[in-house]
């Protein structure tokens, strides 16, 4: 690592501001009205002519058993889909765009492969696995070119990790923009990833002592390139070829992508073709003009990677509201928490915009760098609420309020937004996206 880069990294002390102990007490809450749900969910299945609404229980013959050799979701689940918008593209061109995971519709921590959010800078590439090659060269003792079969001969390992675009919620820095949880935080997913630890291959081909940085390059039209420090590469980076038990989907980088657990999804180069080791970072386009953090001083922070502790309530949410509840009903508040710095230790819930907090339960698997489900049973009272969740992780970080985050990084940063999200619930049980500025 050269001196300049070291200095830059040293200046990335933003996360130090959000230690658990520093979490402030309650400050007066100002709710900002949200614009009406622009990109809200589609009409109910009632009006869909493709769906037959009758039940003849026990009297009809079903489809033949293997009608769908590769299974598809029930037709009644047709509303559970990725969604995109021209606002999240380069001037409306949907080749450089992003589609979002319907996080409020999912259960558990595994996102089905067909619903994994997708970001492409130059379209979804289709790479022939027989022609695919991975070159590993630069400051290594024995450079190699691997075929897919050769890669799969190395011992494989599987891990459940979240993947999040550092631009998730980028539109929310200057106020609430989107009307659904899917659009507020859907640039993320979680899956079981299988592949080869890069360290396993490097142990075999030998890393030269001067090797400090690794360039990863994709084979798609954008030739997405990012640099990673060797410490991370040797720690837990994998070359992934499977997702939830099957081959990666084209959208996720078939046949092979890089996977840097807990770090910006942008580093997880898809349709991977080349890894080069060097003694300095490359300063590629995606780490200079993009994916740097512009601070209030006008200086940009380069090389910041791990995603800070974060959370969102997914039920209720604008697209999963409480309008069907009656006073006195017991209802589960559920959500997701995650941190690129480690394991979620706890999640608090507030009903009054952050003045008072109660502790939620973590449920199911609680794993490092992985979505963690939280839950809280609540007696519905039909009263307006400002509902929030606040996560903390085992590195000591706590999720900041909107103003705490702004105070440190300003509003031009674009990336790594992890400020507390607020859902306003009205007397009717309708839910909207607002911001509490405290
Ligand atoms: N080759 C290549 N890799 C890429 C990209 C790309 O456009 N091309 N997009 C990056 C960005 S910005 C993100 S957020 C993640 C998204 O991964 P996903 O599409 O599997 O969700 O892939 C990253 N890797
Ligand atoms: Mo991204």
Automatic annotation (TrEMBL):
Pfam family, one: Oxidored_molyb
Entry keywords, A to Z: Metal-binding, Molybdenum, Oxidoreductase
Domain Oxidoreductase molybdopterin-binding, first and last residues per copy: 121-282
GO terms of molecular function: heme binding; molybdenum ion binding; molybdopterin cofactor binding; sulfite oxidase activity
One GO term (biological process): sulfur compound metabolic process
Domain Moybdenum cofactor oxidoreductase dimerisation: 304-421
NCBIfam families: sulfite_DH_soxC (TIGR04555), TAT_signal_seq (TIGR01409)
Protein name (record): Molybdopterin-binding protein
Organism of provenance: Sulfurovum lithotrophicum
